Each structure stands twice: as structure tokens, then as C-alpha cells.
Amino acid sequence: MEFKTHIRVRNVNVFYGKEQALKNVSVDIPDRRITAIIGPSGCGKTTLLKSFNRLIDTTDGVRVSGEISVDGENILDPKVEVTHIRKKMGLLSQKPYPLPMSIYDNVAYGPRIHGIKDKKRLDEIVERYLRQSSLWEEVRDRLRTPASRLSVGQQQRLCLARGLAVEPEIILGDEPTSALDPSSSQRIEQRFLELKNQYTIVIVTHILRQARRLADYVIFLYLGELIEHGTAEAIFENPKEQMTREYIKGIIS
Amino acid sequence: MDRRKIEENIFKGLMNASMLIILASLVFILVTIIVRGLPAMNLAMITQTPKGGYYLGKEGGILNAIVGSLYLAGGATLLAILISLPVVLYLNIYSKKGSRLVAFTRFSFDVLWGVPSIVYGAFGFTIMLFFGLRASLLGGIIAVALLVLPIMSRAMDEVIRMVPQELLESSYALGATRLQTAFKVVTRQALPGILTAVLIAFGRGIGDAASVIFTAGFTDYIPYSLLRPAATLPLAIFFQLGTPFPEVQERAYASALILTVIILIISIVSRILITRFTKHIVK
To answer: What is the pLDDT of residues A233-249, one digit of tens each?
Structure first.
């Protein structure tokens, strides 16, 4: 399988104070594919993901070095406008956090902060992305009710719609199904499979079966080091590294 | 009986006694001002300003002090919000967590909270002299704003601190700036707590006498300009209680009753507002 690179990671090191969370990581993330970052807890999966949209900047005492290029632009360059990078990427967190406003306003939040004020256009955007995240039918009659009243599974799909509404190129998921029940998880996974034709998707997961179901490309991290990366087939069927083999078999976790 | 059960019962007794003291104080205060103030209560009290000889028992009311107090506490609360909100948003959103400046600012609030209100009055008075200002509504507003500032800021700080970091991150992840996040997300999520903080500050401001005695002065007229002196209810109570005439002393209790009712109305209205605003809160 041939990939076009969307996110190019070179020699990335991340320190939290004195602790090093990522050690010299270099990897290419393919365009319009689902990439899964796997590895045991505390291995730096989320750190790597949050480096992509620079949400890592909000952690105190963090130092990041190296280069991450998205569309040829080094996003770790301090001169780069973070809001511009973040607009390119939608994020789904472990637990959905709807904003304290109505369902409609949640989806319209992103477009509004980026300057869209026209009521008709906002209506269209809200409907389009609620449909794309398959929530429209469930909420079309109560768009003005608080988002906090939705079930957790619905909230996560709302967060997806909210992220899509800023028209990103990349969707980042930080264990996006870990707080959801099985059927809600399945719906999110289905959305990912549909969306990968238009978006580059990177998810962090500790569920190997999920990675197998979704991923085209897999990155395996262990204690901050990139152990192995490759197509899903290569990693799951024929891992080169001893450690990858053991992790996949469940010997190390 | 088993030892742990005795401990449990002793503690329960202690809790009940404490509750009783709190409730009884409130009831006792209310009963006192009602019993002693109600006979002096009439429409003139709340619709008229003092006529000549009011403090000797002649006709009139304390509309001057009611309006003065509302202006003063309202103005001071507004001024304090304008200062508190930026400070607490800075402490919780912009600053580095655990930095020395943050710790020192919080510590300053705690110290300022403990400063007696007469000191704010004297401090405000010194500033007024420096600017050549006389006792006026403006002077009073500034002194009371300084008095309620630490109370309001600390109360807001506590609720804004409770806003989950992930909620902020959700907003940042959509490309929002810190300012947009602060005003569109954080203040909304913390709105009930912010309103409570404002309410506490207002209640403290409207009830304080010592900070306004030099700064706002006292007058029998309703203030029509920020630069005119303003009467306040706590001072009206103080002056009326200080007269040797029983009928004027009764009016002091009636004035206290009016002050209490104002605070009660504001509390109830804000409770209603709070329940309306809480519907969007994310738990």
C-alpha cells in the first residue's frame, strides 16, 4: 500500500519537567487513512497526539523539540499561530465534554469563533455536521436544548460534529470510545470508517481489537520510544520487533 | 454502648447545636427588627425623604438612604466585577499554574478580606483628599468596591477553578483563543457561582457602615450626581439609634427591616436567575 504523508514527525522529544515523555520520535502519518497509536498506559500516546494540535502547550512545564510538519508547515515553530493549527484538526477526547450551551450552539461554536455570523449558513453547517456524525435524526427537534442532557454516546457524536464543523483536515481521537457503551462505540467507529475518505484520522487506543478493526497504519510506542510503525497488516500479522510481538500477544501491557 | 456509637452521638449533638445557634441567631435578629420596627413602619418611611426635624420624631422617611444604599452597593458591585473578573480569569486561564504571582495574588485576597471595613473607609478618604474629592457617592462607591473586591474575587476564583481543564481544551481544540474560551465557555460554565459571588459582595456592600462614614457622608437628599454625598441605610440606622427619642429609635429598627427585605428580595431574584442559568452547565 502506498501512502501520501500528511503529518511528518521528526525527532520529537517532549519533556514534562525532568521527565521525558517522548524520545526522539520520527514517523510519517498517512493522508486519508486511519492511523492508530497503540501501546501501554503512560507510553506517550496521548502526548504524541496532543503535540499535533499543540494542546500540549497548555500543560505547565512542558518542553517540546523536533519538527512536526503538516502540509509542509512546521507546527512546532513558535511563530505559528496555534489557533490556525487547531482549526485544521478536530479532537475527540476520552470523555466527551460538550460546551455549556445548546446542541445547536455547540456545533456552531467553532464556525462562529472563526467569523461566520450568517444565520442561514450556520443552520446549514449545524445540520450538515450533525448528519455526518449521525446525530441529526435524534436531535433535530431539540436543537435548542442543553447539550448536557444528551446521553454520553450522543455527546461524543456531538463533539465529533462540533469538531467537523470547523472543517478540519485531520481528526484526532484520544481513546474516543473509552467512556462509551459498546453500541455507542460501534457508531463512532462506523463514523470513522466513513470519514476516512475525506479526513486523516489519528486515534490513540489501548484496545487492540479496535486498532485491528479500524487502522490502516499502526504506531507502537513503549515508554516514550517508537518501537515499530507500519501498515496494520505488517504490525499485526508480521511484527518485526520482539516487543511489538509480545504486546500484541498480551504478554506485556 | 459501643465506643464508636458514643462518638457518633456526641458529634451529632454538636452538629445539631451548631445548626441551632445559626438558625436561632437569624430568627432572633428577624424577630427583634420586626417586633420593634413594625410599629414605626409606614408608607412614608419608604416614599419620603426626611423632613425638617425628622430625627426629633417629626415627619418624613428614609427614601434618601434606601436610594443611596442601592446606588452605592450597585455601583460598588459593578466596579468590583470589572476588576474581579479579569483577575480571576487571569489566575485560572492565562497564568502558569502554581506560579508565585498566582499564589501571591490569592494570598493578597485573603489578607484584604480580613482588613476591617473602617480601614477601607480611611484609605478611601485619604485617596479622596489626594484628588481633592469631598464625601460623595463616587467616594463611597470606590471605598465599598475595595471592601467587596477580595470577597467577590475569592468567591469567583473558587468556582472558576472548578471548571474542568478538559472543557477548556475542547474549546482550544476548535481554534478558540484564550479570551474566547474565557468569555464564551468558562464564564458560562461558572455563571451560577459567579452570580453567587456577586450577590455575596452586594450583600456585604449594602450592609457596611464603617467604610462609607467618611467617604459617602450623609445627606437628607437623594443623590442626583456621583459627586454629591449619599445617605446609606446602615448609617441611617446608626444615627436614628443614637437619638434619645424612642419613636426615632423605633424607626431605626424599621430601617433595619427595610435593609433586610432588600437583601432578601435580591437573594430570591438571584436564586431564580441562577436556576435559569444552570440548565446549560456541564457536569
So the answer is: 999 999 999 999 999 88
Residue A248: C-alpha distances to residues A224, A225, A231, A253, B88 (Å): 18, 17, 14, 9, 48
Structure-block grid coordinates of residue B203: 450583600
CB contact under 8 A, A97 and B164: yes
DSSP class of residue A133?
Answer: T
pLDDT at A48: 95
A124 lies within 8 A of chain B by CB: no
Dist CA A62 CA B94 (whole Å)? 16
Cell numbers linked to B261: 427585605
Question: How many A×B Cβ pairs under 8 Å?
Answer: 85
* pTM for this prediction: 0.86
Residue B96, chain A, CB below 8 Å: the answer is yes
Contact A91 B173 (CB under 8 A): yes
- The model's confidence at residue A253, banded by pLDDT at 50, 70 and 90, is low
Provide, rounded to the nearest whole percent, the portion of chain B with pLDDT above 90. Answer: 77
**Number of neighbours of residue B226 by Cβ within 10 angstroms:** 14
B244–A contact, CB cutoff 8 A: no
Q: What is the mean pLDDT of residues A159-175?
A: 95
Give chain A's mean pLDDT.
93
Are the Cβ atoms of A87 and B164 closer than 8 angstroms?
no
The domain made up of B44-278 is a member of CATH 1.10.3720.10: yes
Q: How many CB atoms lie within 10 A of CB B202?
A: 25
Q: Which residues of B touch A89 (CB under 8 A)?
A: 173
Q: What is the pLDDT of residue B154?
A: 95
- Which three three-digit cell numbers place residue A246? 509480545
- Share of chain B residues as helix, strand and coil, in percent rounded to the nearest 5: 75, 0, 25
Q: Are B170 and A102 within 8 A, CB to CB? A: no
Alpha-carbon span A70 to B11, nearest angstrom: 63
Q: Is the pLDDT of residue B10 over 90?
A: yes
| Sequence-ordered list of residues with C-beta below 8 angstroms from that of B217, at least 6 positions apart, any chain | B134, B135, B136, B140, B229, B230
